[in-house]
Design brief:
single chain; alpha/beta; TIM Barrel; about 35% helix; binds D-xylitol-5-phosphate; binds zinc ion
Length: about 220
Amino acid sequence: MKYTLAPSILAADFKNLGRDIENVSKAGADAVHIDVMDGNFVPSISFGMPLIKSIRAATDKFFDVHLMVTDPERYIKDFVDCGADGITIHAEACRDVENALKSIRRAGVRVGIALNPGTSLSTLDYLIDEVDMVLLMTVNPGFGGQKYIESSTRKIRHLRDRLNEEGRDLDIEVDGGITMDTIDKVLDAGANVIVMGSAIFRGNAAENTQYFKNILKDREK
Ligand code: DX5
Ligand code: ZN
Protein backbone atom coordinates (compact mmCIF):
# COMPACT_ATOMS: atom_id res chain seq x y z
CA MET A 1 0.00 0.00 0.00
CA LYS A 2 1.24 3.52 -0.78
CA TYR A 3 1.30 5.84 2.21
CA THR A 4 0.98 9.61 1.81
CA LEU A 5 1.85 12.38 4.26
CA ALA A 6 -0.20 15.54 3.69
CA PRO A 7 0.63 18.46 6.01
CA SER A 8 -2.38 20.73 6.54
CA ILE A 9 -1.36 24.35 5.93
CA LEU A 10 -4.20 25.53 8.16
CA ALA A 11 -1.64 25.15 10.96
CA ALA A 12 1.20 26.86 9.04
CA ASP A 13 2.61 30.36 9.63
CA PHE A 14 0.53 32.41 7.19
CA LYS A 15 3.01 35.30 7.16
CA ASN A 16 5.60 32.80 5.85
CA LEU A 17 3.37 30.36 4.01
CA GLY A 18 5.59 29.89 0.96
CA ARG A 19 8.58 29.14 3.21
CA ASP A 20 6.60 26.65 5.30
CA ILE A 21 5.31 24.86 2.20
CA GLU A 22 8.78 24.73 0.70
CA ASN A 23 10.24 23.35 3.97
CA VAL A 24 7.76 20.48 4.29
CA SER A 25 7.99 19.75 0.56
CA LYS A 26 11.78 19.44 0.74
CA ALA A 27 11.52 17.38 3.94
CA GLY A 28 9.44 14.71 2.20
CA ALA A 29 5.77 15.69 2.31
CA ASP A 30 3.89 13.94 -0.49
CA ALA A 31 1.02 16.43 -0.71
CA VAL A 32 -0.20 19.72 0.71
CA HIS A 33 -3.58 19.50 2.46
CA ILE A 34 -5.54 22.71 1.90
CA ASP A 35 -8.49 23.29 4.23
CA VAL A 36 -11.02 25.62 2.64
CA MET A 37 -13.62 26.71 5.20
CA ASP A 38 -16.62 28.90 4.34
CA GLY A 39 -17.90 29.88 7.81
CA ASN A 40 -21.19 28.23 6.89
CA PHE A 41 -20.65 24.48 6.63
CA VAL A 42 -18.07 24.91 9.43
CA PRO A 43 -17.80 27.81 11.95
CA SER A 44 -14.41 29.05 10.71
CA ILE A 45 -13.39 30.91 7.58
CA SER A 46 -9.91 30.01 6.29
CA PHE A 47 -8.93 30.94 2.72
CA GLY A 48 -9.90 30.35 -0.91
CA MET A 49 -8.83 30.44 -4.55
CA PRO A 50 -6.50 33.50 -4.46
CA LEU A 51 -4.32 31.93 -1.78
CA ILE A 52 -4.15 28.59 -3.61
CA LYS A 53 -3.28 30.35 -6.84
CA SER A 54 -0.42 32.20 -5.14
CA ILE A 55 1.07 29.16 -3.35
CA ARG A 56 0.84 26.96 -6.45
CA ALA A 57 4.20 28.36 -7.51
CA ALA A 58 5.79 27.37 -4.15
CA THR A 59 5.80 23.62 -4.82
CA ASP A 60 4.93 20.96 -7.39
CA LYS A 61 3.52 18.71 -4.68
CA PHE A 62 -0.03 17.37 -4.96
CA PHE A 63 -2.60 19.97 -3.79
CA ASP A 64 -5.14 18.00 -1.74
CA VAL A 65 -8.01 20.48 -1.45
CA HIS A 66 -10.53 19.75 1.32
CA LEU A 67 -13.71 21.78 0.77
CA MET A 68 -15.56 22.39 4.01
CA VAL A 69 -18.01 24.42 1.97
CA THR A 70 -21.77 24.32 1.48
CA ASP A 71 -22.84 23.38 -2.07
CA PRO A 72 -19.20 22.93 -3.17
CA GLU A 73 -20.19 21.98 -6.75
CA ARG A 74 -20.39 25.73 -7.38
CA TYR A 75 -16.61 26.00 -7.10
CA ILE A 76 -15.09 22.85 -8.64
CA LYS A 77 -13.83 24.55 -11.80
CA ASP A 78 -12.48 27.55 -9.82
CA PHE A 79 -10.40 25.30 -7.57
CA VAL A 80 -9.10 23.26 -10.47
CA ASP A 81 -8.17 26.46 -12.32
CA CYS A 82 -6.18 27.75 -9.32
CA GLY A 83 -4.18 24.53 -8.99
CA ALA A 84 -6.06 21.79 -7.10
CA ASP A 85 -4.90 18.25 -7.95
CA GLY A 86 -7.56 16.59 -5.83
CA ILE A 87 -10.85 17.90 -4.49
CA THR A 88 -12.64 16.38 -1.53
CA ILE A 89 -16.19 17.45 -0.74
CA HIS A 90 -18.36 16.68 2.25
CA ALA A 91 -21.37 14.41 1.65
CA GLU A 92 -23.14 16.45 4.33
CA ALA A 93 -22.62 19.70 2.39
CA CYS A 94 -24.21 18.76 -0.94
CA ARG A 95 -27.80 18.65 -2.14
CA ASP A 96 -26.75 16.29 -4.95
CA VAL A 97 -23.59 14.45 -3.85
CA GLU A 98 -23.39 12.18 -6.89
CA ASN A 99 -23.55 15.08 -9.31
CA ALA A 100 -20.94 17.01 -7.34
CA LEU A 101 -18.57 14.02 -7.41
CA LYS A 102 -19.15 13.54 -11.13
CA SER A 103 -18.29 17.19 -11.78
CA ILE A 104 -14.95 16.71 -9.99
CA ARG A 105 -14.33 13.62 -12.16
CA ARG A 106 -15.19 15.59 -15.31
CA ALA A 107 -12.75 18.29 -14.21
CA GLY A 108 -9.98 15.65 -14.36
CA VAL A 109 -8.70 15.74 -10.75
CA ARG A 110 -8.72 13.15 -7.95
CA VAL A 111 -12.20 12.69 -6.49
CA GLY A 112 -12.64 12.56 -2.72
CA ILE A 113 -15.68 12.29 -0.47
CA ALA A 114 -15.43 13.33 3.19
CA LEU A 115 -17.57 11.98 6.03
CA ASN A 116 -17.83 13.68 9.40
CA PRO A 117 -17.28 11.52 12.48
CA GLY A 118 -21.01 11.05 13.03
CA THR A 119 -21.83 10.23 9.41
CA SER A 120 -22.37 6.54 8.67
CA LEU A 121 -20.28 4.59 6.17
CA SER A 122 -23.59 3.56 4.56
CA THR A 123 -23.53 7.02 2.94
CA LEU A 124 -21.00 5.46 0.56
CA ASP A 125 -23.30 2.61 -0.55
CA TYR A 126 -24.39 4.25 -3.82
CA LEU A 127 -21.47 6.65 -4.23
CA ILE A 128 -18.35 4.50 -3.82
CA ASP A 129 -18.01 3.98 -7.58
CA GLU A 130 -17.65 7.75 -8.06
CA VAL A 131 -14.61 8.29 -5.83
CA ASP A 132 -10.86 7.67 -5.64
CA MET A 133 -10.55 8.43 -1.95
CA VAL A 134 -12.66 8.53 1.22
CA LEU A 135 -11.73 11.12 3.83
CA LEU A 136 -12.83 10.01 7.30
CA MET A 137 -12.79 13.05 9.56
CA THR A 138 -11.26 12.14 12.89
CA VAL A 139 -12.40 15.40 14.46
CA ASN A 140 -15.47 17.50 13.80
CA PRO A 141 -14.30 19.85 11.05
CA GLY A 142 -13.61 23.53 11.50
CA PHE A 143 -10.49 23.83 13.60
CA GLY A 144 -6.95 22.49 13.77
CA GLY A 145 -5.41 21.21 16.99
CA GLN A 146 -8.41 19.20 18.18
CA LYS A 147 -8.33 15.83 19.95
CA TYR A 148 -8.70 12.64 17.90
CA ILE A 149 -12.15 11.05 18.23
CA GLU A 150 -11.43 7.49 19.38
CA SER A 151 -14.44 5.90 17.65
CA SER A 152 -12.75 6.84 14.35
CA THR A 153 -10.41 3.85 14.66
CA ARG A 154 -13.29 1.36 14.37
CA LYS A 155 -14.76 3.34 11.47
CA ILE A 156 -11.45 3.28 9.56
CA ARG A 157 -11.17 -0.48 10.15
CA HIS A 158 -14.72 -1.11 8.99
CA LEU A 159 -14.14 0.88 5.82
CA ARG A 160 -10.81 -0.78 4.98
CA ASP A 161 -12.35 -4.24 5.57
CA ARG A 162 -15.28 -3.36 3.31
CA LEU A 163 -12.97 -2.06 0.56
CA ASN A 164 -10.85 -5.21 0.79
CA GLU A 165 -13.95 -7.45 0.62
CA GLU A 166 -15.13 -5.57 -2.48
CA GLY A 167 -11.65 -5.62 -4.03
CA ARG A 168 -11.49 -1.82 -4.13
CA ASP A 169 -8.07 -0.18 -3.93
CA LEU A 170 -9.25 3.20 -2.67
CA ASP A 171 -7.29 5.60 -0.47
CA ILE A 172 -8.54 6.24 3.05
CA GLU A 173 -7.52 9.68 4.27
CA VAL A 174 -7.74 10.68 7.93
CA ASP A 175 -7.81 14.24 9.09
CA GLY A 176 -7.81 15.82 12.53
CA GLY A 177 -5.90 15.08 15.71
CA ILE A 178 -3.34 12.85 14.00
CA THR A 179 -0.20 13.06 16.14
CA MET A 180 2.60 10.91 17.52
CA ASP A 181 0.00 9.34 19.83
CA THR A 182 -2.58 8.45 17.20
CA ILE A 183 -0.72 7.83 13.92
CA ASP A 184 -0.02 4.15 14.58
CA LYS A 185 -3.61 3.34 15.42
CA VAL A 186 -4.97 4.93 12.22
CA LEU A 187 -2.31 3.17 10.11
CA ASP A 188 -3.05 -0.16 11.80
CA ALA A 189 -6.76 0.38 11.09
CA GLY A 190 -6.13 0.88 7.36
CA ALA A 191 -5.70 4.60 6.68
CA ASN A 192 -3.02 5.42 4.11
CA VAL A 193 -3.33 9.17 3.48
CA ILE A 194 -2.39 11.03 6.65
CA VAL A 195 -3.26 14.68 7.20
CA MET A 196 -1.35 16.42 9.96
CA GLY A 197 -1.55 20.11 10.85
CA SER A 198 -0.35 20.99 14.32
CA ALA A 199 1.80 17.86 14.62
CA ILE A 200 3.83 19.15 11.67
CA PHE A 201 3.77 22.93 12.00
CA ARG A 202 4.12 23.27 15.77
CA GLY A 203 7.90 23.19 16.27
CA ASN A 204 10.32 22.39 13.44
CA ALA A 205 8.11 21.59 10.45
CA ALA A 206 10.91 20.04 8.39
CA GLU A 207 12.04 17.75 11.21
CA ASN A 208 8.46 16.79 12.04
CA THR A 209 7.79 16.00 8.39
CA GLN A 210 10.87 13.80 8.14
CA TYR A 211 9.95 12.00 11.35
CA PHE A 212 6.42 11.14 10.26
CA LYS A 213 7.46 10.41 6.69
CA ASN A 214 9.91 7.80 8.05
CA ILE A 215 7.06 6.16 9.97
CA LEU A 216 5.13 5.86 6.69
CA LYS A 217 8.19 4.61 4.81
CA ASP A 218 8.68 1.88 7.41
CA ARG A 219 5.11 0.75 6.74
CA GLU A 220 5.87 0.36 3.04
CA LYS A 221 8.79 -2.00 3.67
C1 DX5 B 1 -10.08 20.44 10.50
C2 DX5 B 1 -9.20 20.31 9.27
C3 DX5 B 1 -7.97 19.49 9.53
C4 DX5 B 1 -7.06 20.14 10.51
C5 DX5 B 1 -6.03 19.16 10.96
O1 DX5 B 1 -11.34 20.87 10.12
O2 DX5 B 1 -9.92 19.66 8.25
O3 DX5 B 1 -7.24 19.29 8.31
O4 DX5 B 1 -6.45 21.23 9.90
O5 DX5 B 1 -5.29 19.80 11.92
P1 DX5 B 1 -4.66 18.99 13.14
O6 DX5 B 1 -3.76 17.95 12.49
O7 DX5 B 1 -3.91 20.03 13.92
O8 DX5 B 1 -5.80 18.37 13.90
ZN1 ZN C 1 -8.78 18.95 6.24
